[in-house]
Amino acid sequence: MKKDQTKHSENHGSRRIFLRQMAETGLIMLGGSSVSRCDSAEVEKTSAATGQPGVIGVEFLYDQASFPSCHASTIVDTKSGLVAAWFGGSDEGNDDVGIWLSRRISGDWLAPIEVANGVDSDGRRYPCWNPVLSPAADGSLLLFYKVGPSPSRWWGLVKRSSDMGQSWSSYEHLPLGLFGPIRNKPIQLTDKTLLCGSSTEHDGWRVHMERASPDLKTWEKTAPLNDGKTLGLIQPTILTHPGGRLQILCRSRQKRVFELWSSDAGKTWSTPEALDLPNPNSGIDGVTLADGRQLLVYNHTQRGRSPLNVAVSSDGRKWQGAVVLENTPGEFSYPAVIESRDGQVHITYTWNRRRIRHVTIDPAKPVLADLPP
Questions:
Q1: How far apart are the C-alpha atoms of 336 and 283, rounded to whole Å?
Q2: Which domains occur in the chain, in start order?
Q3: pLDDT digit string (tens) for 6-34?
Q4: Which residues contact 85 (CB under 8 A, 6 or more apart)?
């Protein structure tokens, strides 16, 4: 198969805006067709989140790595501690991009290791994309990810770990036409069915949902939930509500976050509706907290990928600002968020495509405020 040279659509307008912003602030210098870094240790240590009410810690997952570019992190809480993964390599969409993983032991992140690459059974290598870590019903750890020339031509795979991420099985292909959780974590329903938010990009941007049995042997999926032409949606994040109701929030091409609702465990869904939250065509992630509130991490802007914000809601529709994670020019994007068993909220996100940043929050302590228009 000839490598598709088309990058993910996010790499066009948003990437150009990012490079221009960084050049204007002196973080990089643009010269001809090359980009040279002007690193600043002080800038790297700076985060808008530091010192805000509820923010417990701000750190990078690693200081040095063998790969220059990283993106699309995922994080999970295990009985052995936090585990995070992301894709890394020379640049998004290049064949050397693999899935990298780090475990947090006694408060420190271990050096990243590559746990998956895009080498197919015929020996050819393709780029890896969008890892998603998830606990399995049997107590093991699942790693879903995609491999292929581009998002419109990738396929889904999964690996398993019985020791909380220390070692991994060989990859298994998901059934043809199924991708598992496309970017954000799935949820486990009361019958242990794994409900995955998914989407496709080969015929417009269209969201659908996938359901898997606990052993991942049986899969089913919904029809597309939007037409992909007049409304482009991808990468849903799943929230749970009283009475078994489910809500998904989606990235869009329409500059807003969109929502859909289900009352039958994700088998059927309402018509998409826009929320009063901006979306600059960038990934979002949310989590339902133990106290029943909803928490969302997203870019509160219609253009670019800064600022990066945390908002909280009691009903999933009316949101209030809680924490500003980043607010300087740059790319702060593709967040992943969980609530760990100790009640702390953990957020990882892309920091200028060079690092993965981790922020820990006590969700009871942020001072909520009205969001800017």
A1: 9
A2: 9-361 (2.120.10.10)
A3: 344 444 444 443 344 333 333 333 333 33
A4: 73, 74, 99, 100, 101, 102, 115, 131, 133, 143
Closest CA to 220 of 279, 275, 276, 175: 175
CA–CA–CA angle 264, 268, 269 (5° rounding): 105
Q: Judge contact between 60 and 358, C-beta under 8 A.
A: yes
Q: Look up residue 359 and give its two tokens.
A: 């922020």
Looking at the chain, the number of H-run helices and the number of E-run strands are 2, 27
Q: Are 161 and 141 a contacting pair, CB within 8 Å?
A: yes
**Amino acid symbol at 366:** P
Q: Output DSSP code: residue 121.
A: T
Identity of the residue numbered 146: K
Q: What is the DSSP letter of 32?
A: T
- Which tokens is 47 given? 């985060």
Question: How many angstroms separate the CA atoms of 90 and 313, rounded?
Answer: 38
Residue 44's pLDDT is 66
Least Cα distance to 75 among 65, 85, 88 occurs for 85
Which residue type does 246 have?
A: L
CB-CB neighbours of 99 under 10 Å: 28
Return the structure tokens found at 184: 């954000």
Predicted TM-score (pTM) of this structure: 0.89
Residue 136's CB is within 10 A of a number of other CB atoms, namely 18
pLDDT reading at 176 higher than 90: yes
